[in-house]
Write a structure and sequence with these properties.
- The structure is a single chain.
- A hairpin with a 4-residue loop joins strand 1 (222-225) and strand 2.
- By secondary structure, this protein is mainly alpha-helical.
- The protein is built from 16 helices and two strands.
- The chain has a two-stranded antiparallel ribbon.
- Helix content is 66%, strand content 2%.
- The two termini are 49 Å apart.
């Protein structure tokens, strides 16, 4: 951009910001859309982005979340039209705007969805850029919105596991001690399903460390060491032991150890229905253990008569990753602080 062009854009932005300082919020928003559209039509992406970014910030700072959010969404749309790739500069603008939203502003969720979709289409991560996920998830965690926080943190950066572990532990503290494994699993199992073993281990380690620090005497926690591993045992929370041993079995890539583990804790796992599908997928991913085929007697009989292959199982090509559901006794999100 030439110095003259930069001066012109600077004057346009200053004039629009003056409207905002005078309380003419709607006028500033509409004029910004018109001016940005002119530059977008001419494929002058830098100027369109500069105008939208600066005026959106000013509106958000003035408490005009609706108008500011509208321009933020338009900013992402301009990124898409320009086929702009995620980099530190393009992401930085979006994250600067994101941090200015009031937590109760409805357009924020739409903005987050749009920026994740843009980064998915034009970036290298099909599920969306990890940094964008991390910042969005961290904001939701600070606001005690666990479901939204989980969805983003599970796809975030190497720092996200710490935020998620802290969130799950704070959530758990409002519940009974014996439910600890249900909360720890909300981080451990989905991380394993996304192939992020390191994050699963980090989440488990931080959650159990906080638990040990807070409730050592109450839970009778025991440290067990051997030549091959050091384990912390929770006599009154057996499913928490299961999660720790599951991570150990994955580390050793041992199908036999997993089978022994599953048999030992079978009765308890049978009472935790929300884990079943996740554990079946984990068994196949890490140990090559395929889940049992669902038998359909009628189809099996027909298949035998006609000489065909078994047809009892239901085909499920491209099954989506299951959520690890919350236990029914989970506390309300607002009770986290």
């Amino acid at each position: 951009m030439s110095a003259k062009g930069g001066d012109k854009i600077g004057k346009i932005i200053a004039r629009l910001q003056q409207r905002i300082s005078e309380g003419q919020f709607y006028e500033a928003q509409q004029q910004t859309r018109v001016v940005a559209a002119r530059y977008t039509k001419a494929a002058n992406w830098d100027n369109a982005i500069d105008i939208l970014y600066n005026v959106a910030q000013s509106l958000l700072k003035a408490g005009q979340g609706g108008s500011g959010g509208d321009l933020c969404v338009l900013l992402v749309d301009t990124y898409k039209q320009a086929e702009l790739k995620p980099d530190s500069a393009s992401k930085g603008k979006l994250l600067t705007c994101l941090r200015l939203f009031d937590s109760n502003e409805p357009t924020r969720k739409k903005f987050i969805g749009e920026m994740i979709a843009w980064s998915s289409k034009y970036g290298e991560y099909p599920a969306g850029d990890p940094e964008l996920h991390h910042v969005a998830g961290s904001l939701y965690a600070e606001e005690h919105e666990p479901y939204d926080a989980e969805r983003h943190l599970l796809l975030g950066t190497k720092d996200s596991a710490e935020v998620l572990a802290r969130l799950e532990y704070e959530w758990f503290k409002e519940d009974d001690a014996h439910t600890a494994a249900l909360y720890a699993a909300r981080g451990v199992l989905p991380y394993l399903l996304t192939g992020n073993v390191r994050a699963a281990n980090t989440c488990y380690r931080l959650f159990t460390s906080a638990l040990s620090q807070d409730r050592q005497s109450q839970l009778g926690i025991q440290d067990v060491s051997s030549n091959s591993a050091d384990l912390r045992i929770y006599p009154s929370i057996p499913l928490l032991n299961f999660l720790g041993l599951l991570l150990l079995a994955i580390q050793r890539a041992s199908p036999d150890l997993y089978k022994q583990l599953h048999n030992k804790y079978g009765s308890l796992l049978g009472e935790t229905e929300t884990w079943h599908e996740s554990l079946e997928m984990i068994a196949e991913m890490y140990f090559g253990i395929q889940k049992p085929r669902q038998s359909n007697p009628l189809m099996d009989m027909m298949s035998g008569l006609l000489g065909g292959g078994g047809g009892g199982g239901s085909g499920s090509g491209g099954a989506r990753r299951p959520a690890v559901k919350a236990p029914t006794s989970m506390p309300a999100a607002e009770g986290l602080d």
